[in-house]
Amino acid sequence: MNSIQFPIAIYALIALITFLFISWIRRKPLPPGPMGWPIIGNMLMMDQLTHRGLAGLAKKYGGILHLKMGFGHTIAISSPEMAKEVLQVKDNIFANRPATIAIRYLTYDCADMAFTDYGPFWRQMRKLCVMKLFSRRRAESWDSVRDEVDTMVKATAINTGLPVNLGELVFGLTHDIIYRAAFGSISHEGKEEFIRILQEYTKLFGAFNLADFIPWLGFIDPAGLNTRLPAARAALDRFIDKIIDEHLTKGKKIGDEDAENDMVDEMLAFYSEEGKINEVDDLQNAIKLTRDNIKAIIMDVMFGGTETVASAIEWAMAELMHTPEALKRVQQELTDVVGLERRVEESDFERLTYFKCVIKETLRMHPPIPVTLHKSSEATTVDGYYIPKGSRVMVNQYAINRDKDYWEDPDTFNPSRFLKDGSPDFKGNNFEFLPFGSGRRSCPGMQLGLYATEMAVAHLLHSFTWELPDGMKPSELDMGDVFGLTAPKAVRLVAVPTPRLLCPLY
Ligand code: HEM
User: Fold this and answer.
1) For 126-183, what is each residue's pLDDT tens digit?
2) Quick one: which of 43, 216, 289, 495 has the fewest CB in 10 Å?
3) How far is it, in rounded angstroms, from Cα 191 to Cα 178?
4) Given pLDDT bands bounded at 50, 70 and 90, which one contains residue 329?
5) Binding region
């Protein structure tokens, strides 16, 4: 370097450092939040990262708050205005999801739709799900809802006059619906094993892993994740590989009108040893799915479609048992509209106005996914606060759906609030009510999920009269919840059915 170049390099370096320093001090402030400790930040508050914990913090810090979890930034959104900023105004920046080490491993490095980053692959997978897998035109999924609801009604009728664990009943129902829609009936015998695999996945998704927050402390592994993760994925591989091989051998022809295609059949039409994504409109030429993609999407469907629907059904029944006037009113509507001489049918739904309000009010008070997760793909601002790139953004549906500025008496179950003109719907444009999310990452299974919820609740209410067991009063019903992927009832709902129809139930 000659004598003239040397000072120029020094000046350039000083200018760059000065520029970075000025940008840093001019940077907008982070959202408000509790002070953290060096290195660990607010990690001692980890137990407050639940819908209720974050709602409590929002009362003190407001609709947007910041926590430092180890080296990562966490932003909690708890008001409709802030949710609109994140999910609509800056949807393109918050369209990714944060994946923990466990999630990345169990989804074959985000080979699914729910955790893959927003981009061409996600867009094609979304098209596949919306147009093929969860489409209303896939009659088999809708048939499996009707058949399994029938089976549930029969199982309940057999227990007339006895306490029925409604919580377990509906969790069994939704597993059966989704299992059948995904795999068809040929592999039903492996269902128990599959449920065990799902349960281990649920535990692993929720397990605390220090390495997610302070990467160089990955060797501290009290939950045994380093051995449990490979074991769980190997069990899933064994299970689904066998099903895929059976389907390949069966060689079902897609498009064959008489053949009953399950979701694995639908996906195998796009199967290739090597994945491929093209941005063309013709889906068949646009996307090729590997085995890992197929397995990961099956897990999306299992996790997205079972606990969510089951928790909505159980909460609807629990809130009605807890609020006898609402139970009486909705059953009277079923009697008036459908009568007692036949079972309720899908075509009745549009005239069941109050019933629809019951479902909405349940989803308002108990959003099945109480906190949705997003990630900022670049540094940005929300409400004038700085949001660093890669922040984990938790949108607290539970807090938003009970915001006192938008909802009168928000903690009271009152379906009639949805009878008023202009009351919010769940299409994602009313940011005070987002049970299915909003924007690019909103729920692609909404139609199927709603259909299953409405069918199950309508049949349980129309076919039976329900009493709480052992003379329990409605006010004594435990209405607590637990936080996980969903927020189901902490204590399962148990009630005693008596048939109320004049026709045979089966
Ligand atoms: C009552 C039933 C259901 C509720 C309340 C529900 C709710 C949600 C919510 C809140 C999200 C996240 C939205 C966001 O991040 O903004 C979501 C995503 C998703 N749901 Fe559902 N869901 C239900 C049923 C279903 C069903 C039946 C399926 C599939 C068969 C399904 C599949 C998915 C998938 C794959 C995603 C991820 C989408 C993406 O990241 O692009 N859901 N759901």
Assistant:
1) 999 988 888 888 888 898 999 999 999 999 999 999 999 999 999 999 999 988 888 8
2) 216
3) 11
4) very high
5) 443
Is pLDDT at 187 greater than 80 in this prediction? no
- For the entire predicted model, the pTM comes to 0.92
Q: Ligand 1 centroid vs 217 CA: distance in angstroms? A: 33
In which residue are the tokens 């607590």 written? 480
Buried b (16+ CB within 10 A) or exposed e, 363-373: bbbbbbbbbbb
Q: Whose CA is nearest to atom 38 of ligand 1?
A: 114
Q: 449 and 308 in contact (C-beta within 8 Å)?
A: yes
Cβ–ligand 1 distance for 145 under 6 Å, the answer no
> Could you give the angle at the alpha carbon of 479 between the alpha carbons of 476 and 481, nearest 5°?
150
Element housing 64 (H / E): strand 64-69
304: CA distance to ligand 1 center in Å? 5
As beta bridge partners, residue 375 has 96, 392
442 CA → ligand 1 middle, Å: 7
Closest atom of ligand 1 relative to the 453 alpha carbon: 1
Residues 205-236 pLDDT 10s:
888 899 999 988 888 888 899 999 999 999 99
pLDDT tens digits along 117-131:
999 999 989 999 988
- In this prediction, residue 207 carries a pLDDT of 87
What is the C-alpha to C-alpha distance for residues 477 and 315, in angstroms, rounded to an integer?
12
Question: Ligand 1 atom 21: the closest Cα is on which residue?
Answer: 443
Dihedral over Cα of 272, 278, 283, 284: its sign:
negative
Any idea where the domains of the chain sit in the sequence?
Answer: 48-499
Ligand 1 pocket, 445 CB below 6 A? yes
Domain 48-499 fold is: Cytochrome p450 (1.10.630)
Most confident range, picked from 36-45, 195-204, 251-260 = 36-45
Tokens 């349960």 correspond to 199
Whether ligand 1 lies within 6 angstroms of the CB of 400 is answered as no
Q: Which of 388, 405, 454 is nearest to 426 (CA)?
A: 454
In short, whether 370's Cβ falls inside 6 Å of ligand 1 is no
Q: Which of 85, 443, 485 to mutate to test the pocket of ligand 1 (most atoms within 8 A of CB)?
A: 443
Pocket test for ligand 1, best of 436, 440, 451 (most atoms within 8 A of CB): 436
Closest CA to 373 of 344, 398, 395: 395
Q: What is the pLDDT of residues 188-213, one digit of tens each?
A: 677 788 888 988 998 898 888 999 99
* Sequence ranges of the binding site for heme: 443
Strands (E), 407-479: 464-467
